[in-house]
Amino acid sequence: MAISISGGGLTIEDVVAVARHREKVELDAAAVERIAKCRGLLERKIEAGEIMYGVNTGIGEFSEVALSPDQIKDFQKYLIYNHSAGIGEPAPEEHIRAAMFARANVHAHGHSGCRPIVTQTLCEMLNKGVTPVVCEKGSVGACGDLAPMSQVALALMGKGEAWFEGQRLPGDQALERAGIKPVVLEARDGLAMINGSNLISGIGCLEIYDIERWIKQAEIATAMSLEALRANMRPYLSKLHELRGFRGSVTSAGNIRRCIEGSDLLGGVKTKVQDAYSMRSTPQVIGAARDHLAYARKQFEIELNGVGDNPIFLPDEDMVLTGANFQGTPISLPLDMVGASVTMISVLSERRLNRLLNPALSVGLPAFLTEGAGMFSGHMLSQYTAGMLIVEQRTLSMPACVQSIPAAADQEDFVSMGMNTALKTKQILVNANGVLGIELIAGAQALDFRDYRPGNGTRAAHAAVREVVEHLGVDRPLFPDHNNMSDAVRDCRVLDAVEAEVGELGSSW
Hints:
Blueprint (H helix, E strand, L loop, with lengths): L2 E3 L6 H8 L5 E3 L1 H19 L21 H15 L3 E4 L2 H15 L8 H13 L2 E2 L2 E3 L8 H11 L4 E4 L2 E4 H8 L10 H6 L3 H31 L9 H7 L2 H14 L16 H4 L1 H23 L7 E3 L4 E3 L7 H29 L22 H17 L21 H31 L7 H11 L12 H12 L2 H10 L7
Parallel strand pairs: 1-2
Antiparallel strand pairs: 3-5, 4-6, 6-7, 8-9
């Protein structure tokens, strides 16, 4: 069943379905009526000679320059040409599809002033698999994602380039092969395509979805390491976390304990009275990330269903409002902290890895998890790799939302830099898959040396790791293991295996 675009009710899961899994969309009939009604207002005001930003004026510093009636139509075409000013490699198709989906939902409110054919063609491109080729870099996150969304508009016009059935084609050819007529832009149509932070929003929705699942795998990796290190599990009792009251902490402790249910560690193995912070404070740390991620999800779903545009047309009030609803800060700020929280959890993962490898801390495990110490180095170098990844994550965790560089002769003198946030968060997550994969490899190796029964979830995780990486007896090149396990984390193979055994792990959102 197609996902309805009506201006409201969309979730992050809807973005994933359309952008990643190519679910069909349908523009709601009432939304088409609202778009047409709004367009009628705009055309009446143009006819009356009322001055409206970006309709019969220039944009940015040129907002005080009035356009003649003959210029109004062509201005939209040249606006798109001029603003197609990005740089770099093409963005992933799923990012662009997410942005197109989000932009169509903005139009569906009936406050953007474009013609229905613009939004209908955007939906047709999504349904027929025509994805504009868009440079990954160029947006400063206000006045929206101007440069990348202009390349989307180019393809809508039959210009630029687009992907279709695996081929990179000129825009007109891609539309022709898909049976889509290019749109000839008229007044306001071009600006209505670009004046919002929809690419930041689309990328962020995909990242939040993936990070929510990554966090569950971080809890699974924690459970494996705790079992291998003979941890005292009393810090994971639900009552302890309920007394403080943070929902994320309660959820995280519960997930870790569920993985360990059925383990000898809960009754038959001697443990310390109190373990190091990296072992006993994990629920508080991961829980804090969970609580912030829940807030970020709320912010992104508000943005997904809101009116991000400028100007905004109100047909019922016969009013045009100029403001800054394109500003990316309401989503770039929480996304900055989502990336930092992933780095924080990765640092915690590396500290547990250190305890697994260091014979002074590993409670009887062989040094670097090898029985041939001296001749063999075991997983010594795995920690080097994890450390390198974390340093890059830390570098990328500097917030972009404080990095504004003014533009447009200081007319646009504060911008969100939210695209930098989205791109660096993507790389933080790529690195996090590697860090977590390395801890999972080490945790599985360490459990191979223990003679007690692990928990039900931990055993499932161990088996999932062993489907990807063999036990390390004699030293071998480790980079295939690291890369393969990183891919397995990305694909949630460990999570799927554990949830098949113990049921769905808890969420805090």
